[in-house]
Automatic annotation (TrEMBL):
The keyword Transferase applies. InterPro entries: Aminotransferase_I/II_large, DapC_beta/gammaproteobac, LL-DAP_aminotransferase, PyrdxlP-dep_Trfase, PyrdxlP-dep_Trfase_major, PyrdxlP-dep_Trfase_small. The keyword rRNA-binding does not apply. Residues 32-391 form the Aminotransferase class I/classII large domain. GO terms for biological process: lysine biosynthetic process via diaminopimelate. It is an enzyme of class 2 (transferase). One of its GO terms (molecular function) is pyridoxal phosphate binding. This is Succinyldiaminopimelate transaminase. It comes from Marinobacterium marinum. Its EC number is 2.6.1.17. Its cofactor is pyridoxal 5'-phosphate. Keywords: Aminotransferase, Transferase.
Amino acid sequence: MNSDLDRLQPYPFEKLAVLKAGVQPPSHLEHISLGIGEPKHPAPPFVLEVMADNLSALSNYPTTKGMPELRQAIAGWCERRFELAAGSVDSERNVLPVNGTREAIFAFTQAAVERKPDALVLTPNPFYQIYEGAAYLAGAEPYYLNCLADNGFIPDYDAIPTEVWQRCQLLFVCSPGNPTGAVHDIDTLKQLIALADEHDFIICSDECYSELYPDEHNKPAGLLQACAELGRQDFARCIVFHSLSKRSNLPGMRSGFIAGDAALLEPFLLYRTYHGCSMPIQHQLASIAAWNEEGHVLENRSQYRHKFEAVLRVLQPVMEVKQSDASFYLWAKTPIADDEFAKGLFEQQNLTVLPGRYLAREIDGVNPGEGYVRMALVATVSECVEAAERIRHYIESL
């Protein structure tokens, strides 16, 4: 077997299972999970109808590149959402449908990294675990960029040594961030594009939470948007990842896209052709319907906004926590060690949250996830409020 498999760490939820093993929560309380970022809002009925009406497509092999109509729907959505000029996203060259961002992030890293002894993949820390695993299995070393409160949970890009930039092959940007919900502003994205030009690396911007924001007048900026403002019509060295999982409550459909530099997407399409990961036709047709409709997304944001307001009213008097810039996560500071907090909360209140240390690595003696827990406000409003009240009771009992 590939020896790089031995470098993979247990997934955060495996660590969480070990933490909770042998703990007996109170049986009179129903379990509430804020641990996994799996959307629980209902899937849009019109999307389900399209899928159900096209099950006969199971008789056909889908193409790796996807249906032209899907690529056109995606290109149009990008242009509308990020205020790009009409026709600036070429559906033939700048877009590929993928089976969710997780699959695409991993696969693109395998195709893009040139196996050199000094190859680096730069990743935020804390981070989405696929960034690290993809780097290891592509033959590169992950280089962790601590995301600390004093910099708004955005990496301090100015502090990265020149020699690190010179070895960088891929830079992962997660905006809005998982787990912190922090958003890169457009000037920072432009700064990163300039660094990519100077040092010849690829920017991979994971934007799968971009549609979950609290202020309708303050949408998170995107990497393609930064390219457009710089006049970079070719999106050189820039790749973005988007998904219907969070935006449209369709995590089980595994539908998203990768878009950007055509010079990078062309060889990636070749890789995907061999990889054998084309999207089922009925999923493509359902995806077209989802990308072309915004009403359900507006309602989705409204539900999350209501949950954040209700939960924060309960927690803020006893806990250091505030509204995240975007996403459905709260990144909350704990009054005791984060893992002990999560364990005690499960034991006393039958409630699951994810210790921040499980989402990060210790760098220079600092684990930037320590002292925080990630709460995914994916349950119903009533369950989220009940969860907040249980957390408050637990904190007040310490």
